[in-house]
Design goal:
6-stranded antiparallel sheet; TATA-Binding Protein; 3 domains; Rossmann fold; alpha+beta; 6-stranded antiparallel β-barrel
C-alpha cells in the first residue's frame, strides 16, 4: 500500500479490486489533472489538491489508495472524490470500497453544516441573494469558493443528516429521503459574524431545486451545506474572466478579491440589460455585458465570439484565464486556449457549470 503520510497528517487507505486497474488509474489521473496536480508513473499516480493528497498504486488486480490531509474535512473530501470516480470509472462493475484509518465510517461528516435562512434579497429580476447563518464557518473562508446546498426533496419536506459511509461517501439514514444537492458559489462570507451569501439564478420549471428554494425561501428555513471545494483561480497580473449568469457570482467575487495591480477583462453573458449588476473591484477592469435578448441560454455562440475577440497574448506566464458556462461552450473555449493560444493548463481554468437539457448534480459543475 502506498503511504507517504507524515506526522500530524490524517490518513485513510483502501484496496479496491477491479478488472482493469491500469485503465482505471489512467482515467483517474486524466480526470483529476483538471482539478489538481497529478504526477504519474507506470503503475502509480499521485494526486495533490489544496485540501489533501492521494497516492494510487496498481497491485495485481487491485488498486491501492492512500489518502492524506491535515484535517478531517480535507481527508473526507479526498475520500469522497476518489470513491465517486472509482465507482463511475469502473462501470459496469461495482467495486467494493472500504476505507480504514481516520475519518472512519459512522463518524460525523466533517464538512457538513446546518444553516438557517437569515434574509432574502432580490438583486435583479432573475437573481436572488439568500443569506444563510450558522456556526463554525471558518473553513468556508479558505481558498475554494464552491459549496453544495442540500435542498429538501419536496417543498416543506424533511430529510435526514448523514454520517461517513464505509466507501467514503456520506451515508444517509434509512426511512427518510435524501436531499437534492447542487453546487453554488459563496458570494460573500463573514465567519466571525456567522453568515454567508449565495446568489441564485431564478429559472422557470420544476427541474431547478435551487431556483425553487430561492423563490420560496424565508427567514428561519433550514438548509444544509457541504464544502468548500473547487472554484479557485491562479495568481497573475492580467486576467480574462468569462461566463454566463451562473458564473456571475463567482466573477463578482473574484473581482472584489483581486488587487489594484491586476488588469482584468471580464465578459458576462446575461439574459438582457435588466440583469446587469454593479461589480466592484480595486483592479483595472474592462467589463463587457453580452445580452441574449430573448434567446435561450446555451443556444448561442455570443460568449464564445466575445472571448475570441479579445486580443490575448499567447503563452504569457503572467496571465490567467477563468471561464465558466454551459458545457458545450466551455469545451470550445478550452480547446481554443489550449490549441490555438498554446496556454498551459496552469494558466487557465474552464469549467462547465451546467449542461443544456440535462438536470441533476452532475449535469455540469453547478446549477446556477
Amino acid at each position: 500500500m502506498a503511504n507517504s503520510a507524515v506526522a500530524d497528517q490524517l490518513v485513510a487507505e483502501t484496496r479496491v479490486e477491479v478488472s482493469e486497474p491500469a485503465v482505471l488509474l489512467e482515467r483517474l489521473a486524466d480526470h483529476f489533472s483538471e482539478h489538481g496536480d497529478v504526477t504519474k508513473e507506470e503503475c502509480k499516480a499521485r494526486l495533490a489538491f489544496h485540501f489533501g493528497t492521494a497516492e494510487l498504486e496498481i497491485d495485481g488486480g487491485y488498486l491501492n489508495v492512500a489518502a492524506t490531509a491535515s484535517d478531517a474535512s480535507g481527508l473526507a473530501f479526498v475520500k469522497v472524490a476518489l470513491a465517486e470516480h472509482l465507482i463511475e470509472f469502473s462501470e459496469p462493475e461495482t467495486p467494493e470500497i472500504r476505507w480504514t484509518g481516520d475519518c472512519a465510517a459512522g463518524s460525523p461528516v466533517p464538512y457538513l453544516r446546518r444553516m438557517t435562512v437569515e434574509r432574502v434579497e432580490q438583486i435583479t429580476p432573475r437573481m436572488r441573494r439568500v443569506r444563510l447563518s450558522g456556526d463554525d464557518l471558518e473553513r468556508f473562508t479558505r481558498e475554494s469558493m464552491h459549496i453544495r446546498l442540500l435542498f429538501p426533496p419536496e417543498k416543506g419536506g424533511a430529510y435526514g443528516w448523514p454520517v461517513m459511509g464505509e466507501d467514503g461517501r456520506p451515508a444517509w439514514p434509512e426511512g427518510l429521503p435524501k436531499p437534492i444537492a447542487r453546487v453554488y458559489t459563496i458570494r460573500r462570507i463573514d465567519a466571525d459574524e456567522g453568515w454567508l451569501d449565495i446568489d441564485m439564478v431564478l429559472h422557470e420549471g420544476d427541474g431547478y431545486p435551487g431556483a425553487g428554494f430561492a423563490e420560496n425561501a424565508k427567514p428561519g428555513d433550514e438548509i444544509g451545506i457541504t464544502g468548500p471545494g473547487g472554484g479557485t483561480y491562479g495568481q497573475a497580473t492580467r486576467y480574462l474572466l468569462a461566463g454566463d449568469e451562473t458564473a456571475l457570482p463567482a466573477i463578482a467575487r473574484i473581482l472584489e478579491e483581486l488587487p489594484e495591480t491586476a488588469r482584468v477583462t471580464a465578459i458576462v453573458e446575461i439574459a438582457d440589460a435588466a440583469e446587469e449588476q454593479v461589480l466592484v473591484s480595486k483592479a483595472d477592469v474592462d467589463l463587457t455585458w453580452v445580452h441574449r435578448d430573448g434567446l435561450e441560454p446555451g443556444t448561442t455562440d455570443l460568449l464564445e465570439r466575445a472571448v475570441k475577440a479579445v486580443d490575448w497574448p499567447e503563452a504569457d506566464p503572467d496571465t490567467y484565464v477563468w471561464i465558466a458556462c454551459e458545457q458545450a461552450a466551455v469545451r470550445k473555449l478550452r480547446s481554443y486556449f489550449r490549441k490555438e493560444k498554446k496556454m498551459p493548463r496552469a494558466n487557465h481554468m474552464a469549467v462547465a457549470y451546467w449542461r443544456r437539457g440535462v438536470a441533476g448534480e452532475h449535469a455540469g459543475e453547478k446549477d446556477g
